[in-house]
Amino acid sequence: MRMYTDPKGEAYELIIDLAIRNSECFVLGEKLPADVTQPRQYTSVLGALEPYLMKTIIIQDIDEVMQVGKNYRSHAFYTAGTYYLYRCCEESGNVLKQMASSLSEWTYPALPEDLCFVKEGGGDYLYSVVHERMYGMDITEEEAIELMDRVTGVFLKLEVHRDLDRLLDDAIKHKTDWLYISGHGLTELPDRIRELTELCDLEVFEQDLYRLPEGLFELSKLERLRISTADLECIPSSIAKLKNLKELSIHCASSNRSGFQPKPKEEISLSRIPPEIGELEQLEQLTILYSSIRELPRELENLKQLRMLNVGRCMIKRKPKFLYGMKQLEYINVSQNLF
Predict the structure, then answer these.
(1) What angle do CA 138, 139, 141 make, to 5 degrees?
(2) CA distance linking residue 178 with residue 171, whole number of Å
(3) N or C: which end of the chain has fewer CB within 10 A?
(4) What are the pLDDT digits (tens) for 30-47?
(5) pTM, rounded to two decimals
């Protein structure tokens, strides 16, 4: 069962205790190729865990990755590297709680990577793939609901989250930093989205979504915003309030239902990029695909951190000259075609 966000603080400690009781061993890895120019910062961690070391597995190629993965059925083994398997006991669990305060902290070079707990006979009880922001537990829906009711900060994806109000209730309670919304038949996001004050990453795939509420632009910690829909009314000027935004991605002509036929580009409502977007000083990636946009605002020049600009399948006839002066751009696509 996938987690929306990794547990932190007291929630992390409780999850470690649960995993220790329900698993035979846990795995930490040193993935290859490692950056040999950076000294390992975690020799003390390996030393503290040494009394509980059961096995060291060195994987050198893809065939070995597949074989080990088949034997253990764990998310831990997905690439070449050195893997350490430790016995689960109260003492080894205490080391894990002393050395980190969340699953996301188990990453190179500060710590060995991707803490996973493997059950007797194989299969993960608790897994993490930190660089992909993947975390999860092997528990039932009923166990997950009981755990979420008992512990703030453990937020798992449930079947009952098909009800949007229940999803938002849990997201607000557990102060999630990531949320994916899809399949609710929305034409507009509920304004209570403003209550997700810790949200850093929001992805919405709703075919009928047409309007973005003002409450969305009160999420001051938001770093990534991805919207996929058939048509979007506009990008409100309030986008300027998202001062920490690093990535903005809008895909029109998107559908999650069969038999969909997109409108012609010229009929798409999204026809302009507001000049206020130039106030997003942290923006690194801007993607807007399939729109009736005919020109780019010159205020894009103010985006000194912008590395990728992708305005494809729009109605701009030629690339604006001012883009050639934005030397920091690594990728530019301004085209009436996809590329």
Answers:
(1) 135
(2) 9
(3) C
(4) 986 555 556 677 889 999
(5) 0.88
Q: Where are the alpha helices (DSSP H) in the chain?
A: 10-22, 43-49, 62-72, 90-99, 141-150, 164-173
pLDDT tens for 178-189 read: 999 999 999 999
**Residues 52, 55, 56, 60, CA torsion sign:** negative
Instruction: With H, G, I as helix, E, B as strand and everything else as coil, classify residue 206.
Output: coil
Q: Average per-residue pLDDT in the chain? A: 94
Residue 90 near residue 97, CB atoms below 8 Å: no
Give pLDDT tens digits for 113-151: 999 999 999 999 999 999 999 999 999 999 999 999 999
Q: For the chain, list the domains and their CATH numbers.
A: 10-142 (no CATH), 177-334 (3.80.10.10)
Burial class (CB in 10 A: 0-12, 13-18, 19+), 132: exposed
